[in-house]
Amino acid sequence: MYYRNNKLIIPETINELHQTVLKNPHYVFFAGGTYLMKRHSLYPSTSSQRIISLEMIKDLFEVTRNLKHVEVGSMVTTNKLLEIGTLAFNNLLLDTLSNTATHIVRNQITIGGALATNNIRFSLPGTLSCMDASVELIDLSKTKIISKIIPIEKLYKNDELLLEEGTLIKKIIIPLKTYNFERFYCVGDPIKDPTSTVIFAFRANINQTLLNNIKLSITFPTAGIHISTVIPSELDGVQIPIIPKNAISISKKLVIELEKNMTGVTPLQKERAKRIIQSILYQITPSKKFIDKIE
Amino acid sequence: MIKLSMKLNKTTLELFVDEMKPLSQILYEDLDIDIPIRNCSHNYCGNCLVILEKEPVLSCLVPAYKLQGKTITTFDSFKQSAHYRNIRRTYDALNCEPCPICYEAKTLIIESMLLKAKTKRIDNNIDDLSRKFLTKAIDDDEKNQIDFETAQREFSLNSCDCLTSKDLYNIVTKALDDRIKRRVL
Q: What value of ipTM does the predicted structure carry?
């Protein structure tokens, strides 16, 4: 059933969606609605903007899995992903999903929608970029549908979403690789208090006393996502335990990196970022009691 | 505008509304149902919860076009169910209940948590001994599904802080015990 009236269009296939996009110059894609329904401009609306609902396109609900990765359609809800991913995904993603809003709201939040919010970043993009996930985009603005796969971090530049008009996230490709040290922290409430919230996703492999495969993404809801280059370069190949003096110096370097690369990060967010990275470094370092026990 | 046909509290309704009009505003403006949305200002206050197809939802996040042919239950109708009586009994037993402003929302959040926990049921065609063991295993499993942190996060949906997290957690666990004991399905 292809439903349309003056304002709302509900296509059933990607081809119908493509034709709809070509025919209508002003439109907005409507997925779960948790972000868009909050915008005052949507209702009552006097603009000629059409609403294209994606809820009937079956291709966007598919979930497939092979040995290396899971491909998740962009209209899959976070609760659904949490249910199907319990045995497959690593703890970093499961923690992120279960910490996203509440059960009632998660029933409505779609994965694609969570990645494509315009002015605010929530926890999912940061975690997925920390896991080296990528997205398949389809460009519907040309006469032929063009598909391309890009890493998630390329979707954003600081607080900006680089998704061009007419481009849709079709699926998200999540690698199934796990790491033996994964941490997710969300300090603050990204919806009610975005300017003081800091979201951390950190992963590393600890091989005996060596650290490698390190990646850290820090999300500031209003300022954007930052993939740290300082932390991997400082910690890669480092012997643990990390002495407290080094931990403090590394955390200070992270703050300098944030000051250089990010605009709009508040002093409270910087302080929180500093403390969280210190906490992570102390967790990597076994406590004195633990070292004594080994000796 | 669309012609919307839906079932509200067991009554079939037909009305013309804008496609993107939120359910909360349809209830308040078109159907004159008192739903506390006035102080929300699109900030997830969590007071406008209703039950849509047996699942609690924030009515401010559901546009009209998604309601076509759906069943909506407001708190007034939910009050007549056995599930509500179970939660009410718990409030009375613990002598602790939410304030009048968030009473409906918090009760529906509790209901959503209890519904999430009570997902497994036992097949009738099994022998008594197996039933006994399975019942105990499922009851334990259901109790384990609600931990303090989960409860705290779920209640963060409602911004009213009339009750502490611990009080709310006690209400949920007691209501779940009561529901298991009385076999409220």
A: 0.83
